[in-house]
Specification:
Blueprint: H1 3-9, H2 48-79, E1 92-103, E2 111-112, H3 123-128, E3 129-133, E4 144-152, H4 168-180, E5 188-190, E6 193-195, E7 197-203, H5 205-208, E8 211-212, E9 219-224, E10 243-253, E11 261-263, E12 266-275, E13 279-280, E14 288-293, E15 298-302, H6 303-310, H7 324-335, E16 349-350, E17 352-366, E18 380-381, E19 386-387, E20 397-406, E21 412-425, E22 430-437
Antiparallel strand pairs: 1-17, 2-16, 3-4, 4-7, 5-6, 7-15, 8-17, 9-10, 10-12, 11-12, 12-13, 12-14, 14-15, 17-22, 18-19, 20-21
C-alpha cells in the first residue's frame, strides 16, 4: 500500500467508532447545539458492517487508482524506453553449432580457371615451392591461392649445393612427413604402395578457414607430353613444359564411398580418379593417386603414379635441379585450356572450405507500445520539442534499422543491421532475430 492510500485510510472511522462530531458514548448521537436538540429524538445505533463496507469501497477505489497510475507509468516507460533487458530463458538460445562451407578461392569462388606464378618469389624460394595466384601479379586483386612443392625422401631431384643431406626436396619430404604421418612412419603410402617422392598441394591458410571440405574438391591434371628439360619451369622455348593436346584427368577424395582414416594429423582420405558429379571412378577398384588431409589443407600426390599415369617425367637425379613442382603447375594450369564435355566449361580446380560455427540467437521482441518514438533530432521541432510530422500526433511511427547489444553497464558490444528499414507503430509489433557467430 502506498503513502497516498494510507493517508486516506487515516480519515476513515476505526472499527467501533462513531462518525466525526459524534460522542464517544456507544450508540447515541449527541446534538451539535442546544437549539437543534429535539425532545423526541431517538438514539441511533451505527452498524459495524456498514463501516466495514465503506472501508472496503474506499480501499477498492484506491487500489484501482493505484493500478491505473502504475499502468500509465508503465505505458510512459515503454513508449520512451531506450533499453530492454533480455529474458535469458525465453529470448536467448545459445551454443547452436552448424557447419558452413564456401568457395575456397578469392571472392568466394569455388572454381579456379586462371593460374599465375610471380617473379616476386626469390630464386631460393622457388627451389622449395612455387606460389600460385588467381590473376596477373601486377593486379592489385592478385593473391596467392595455393602453393606447390616437390619432396624426395633421399633428397633427389634438387640441388644440394654441395651440402650433404641438405637439398630442398629432402627438406620438403621431411617437413610433411613430420606434419602428417604418425610417429614411426617414414614413408607416405598410397593404396598399398609406399613412395619416396611426392608432389604437394598446400592451400593458403586464410582461404582454408578450418579445413578443406571433404567431397567438395576436384583437381584437374593434364597429361604432360614430349620430353621436357630436366629443370624446365616455363611454357616457351627451351624451358618449355609441354602438355597433352586433349587428355585431362580429374581427381577427388573417396569420402563418398569410404570413411576417413583417423591419425595424429586428423582425418585422412585417399585421392582417387573421379569427379564431384560422377563420384569415384570404378569405386570397386579405384585408381589411387595420393592422400588428402582436409584438416591441414594439404594434398599429397604419389610421384610414381603421376609418372605412370600422366607422364610427369620426374627428375630424380642425385643433386640435380629438377624444378619438378613446376611440372605439376603446368599440368594444373594447362587443364583450363580444355573444355569439360559434361559442363561445356573449361576444366577448373574446384574446392570449398569448411568451418564449424557456434551461434547465439537473440530474439528481440518489440511490442506495439514500445519504440514508437525516436530521439533523432529530426523527429521533433521547435523549442518545446513538438513532433515534426503532424501526422505523428496520436499515431507516431519509427523505422528500425539497427539493433545494439549492450552489457549491464550499457556498453555497446555488438551491432546488428537489418536488411531494410522496419516500420514500427502502435499497430505493429516486431520480432527480430539477431545471430551472433563465433
Amino acid at each position: 500500500m502506498n503513502i497516498k492510500m494510507i493517508e486516506k485510510l487515516k480519515q476513515l472511522p476505526r472499527h467501533g467508532a462513531l462518525p466525526r462530531r459524534a460522542a464517544r458514548g456507544r450508540g447515541q448521537v449527541l446534538p451539535t447545539s442546544p437549539a437543534s436538540a429535539s425532545p423526541t429524538a431517538q438514539p441511533v445505533e451505527v452498524s459495524n458492517n456498514s463501516i466495514n463496507e465503506q472501508v472496503q469501497q474506499m480501499a477498492q477505489a484506491l487500489a484501482q487508482e493505484i493500478v491505473a497510475e502504475q499502468q500509465q507509468q508503465q505505458m510512459v516507460a515503454r513508449m520512451g524506453r531506450t533499453f530492454t533487458k533480455f529474458d535469458m530463458v525465453n529470448d536467448v538460445v545459445s551454443k547452436q553449432k552448424e557447419t558452413v562451407t564456401a568457395g575456397l578461392w578469392s571472392d568466394g569462388l569455388a572454381s579456379l580457371t586462371t593460374f599465375y606464378t610471380s617473379s616476386a618469389q626469390t630464386f631460393n624460394q622457388r627451389k622449395y615451392y612455387v606460389d600460385v595466384l588467381q590473376s596477373d601479379p601486377s593486379n592489385d586483386s592478385s593473391a596467392v591461392q595455393f602453393s606447390l612443392a616437390y619432396g624426395h625422401a633421399a633428397g633427389s631431384g634438387s640441388d644440394s649445393q654441395g651440402q650433404l643431406n641438405d637439398s630442398p626436396s629432402r627438406a620438403i619430404y621431411s617437413q610433411y612427413r613430420q606434419l602428417l604421418l604418425n610417429p614411426g612412419d617414414s614413408r607416405f603410402t598410397t593404396g598399398e604402395r609406399s613412395t619416396e617422392h611426392i608432389y604437394v598441394i598446400n592451400f593458403k591458410r586464410n582461404r582454408l578457414k578450418e579445413r578443406l571440405d571433404p567431397g567438395n574438391f576436384e583437381l584437374p591434371l593434364r597429361q604432360l607430353s614430349g620430353s621436357r628439360p630436366l629443370n624446365a619451369t616455363g611454357s616457351v622455348g627451351l624451358n618449355h613444359v609441354a602438355v597433352s593436346e586433349s587428355f585431362c584427368f580429374s581427381l577427388i577424395d573417396d569420402s563418398s564411398v569410404n570413411s576417413a582414416t583417423i591419425g595424429d594429423s586428423g582425418k585422412v582420405y585417399n585421392i582417387v580418379s573421379g569427379s564431384i558429379n560422377g563420384g569415384v571412378y570404378n569405386s570397386s577398384a579405384p585408381h589411387y593417386y595420393g592422400l588428402a588431409y582436409p584438416d591441414h589443407g594439404v594434398l599429397i600426390l604419389d610421384g610414381n603414379t603421376l609418372d605412370e599415369k600422366l607422364n610427369f617425367q620426374t627428375n630424380s637425379g642425385s643433386s640435380s635441379e629438377g624444378n619438378n613442382h613446376f611440372g605439376l603447375f603446368h599440368s594444373i594450369s594447362g587443364s583450363s585450356l580444355i573444355t569439360n564435355s559434361a559442363t561445356s566449361d573449361p576444366y577448373g580446380f574446384l574446392a570449398r572450405n569448411s568451418e564449424q560455427v557456434t551461434s547465439t540467437h537473440y530474439f528481440v521482441r518489440v511490442k506495439n507500445a514500445e519504440y514508437n518514438f525516436s530521439n533523432n533530432p529530426s523527429y521533433v521541432t521547435g523549442s518545446v520539442g513538438s513532433l515534426s510530422q503532424t501526422s505523428f500526433v496520436g499515431d507516431p511511427k519509427t523505422y528500425i534499422t539497427t539493433v545494439g547489444l549492450y552489457n549491464d553497464n550499457r556498453e555497446l558490444l555488438a551491432i546488428a543491421k537489418l536488411s531494410k528499414a522496419l516500420l514500427k507503430s502502435f499497430q505493429r509489433e516486431a520480432l527480430i532475430r539477431v545471430k551472433l557467430d563465433y
